[in-house]
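Async update (no meeting this week)

Hi team, since we skipped the sync, here's where things stand on the single-chain job. The sequence we agreed to prioritize is pasted below, unchanged from the tracker. I ran it this morning and attached the output directly underneath so nobody has to dig for it. Comments welcome in thread, and please keep replies under the output.
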Amino acid sequence: MAKYGLKRGIVGSEVRHTTAQYHRDLLNQTEDIQENVGLLLAEKEMAESELAKIKRFSFRQRQVKGAGAVI
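Output:
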């Protein structure tokens, strides 16, 4: 490598080699995060559905109250 002007092992360098285990751990973390995102999206959809039901019910209640006042 010296003939190309490259030096190996610079003194005081903070750079360290990573291991295969490090990359496996990152992959597992990524999979876990993706699974959590999927669960959170499902929870969000359920919450939005519940909110829509509540809004419809509330709107119907106001319609019934409004119709009763006209009579």
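Quick observations from my side:
The helical segments are 20-70.
The chain is about 70% helix and 0% strand.
Reply here if anything looks off.
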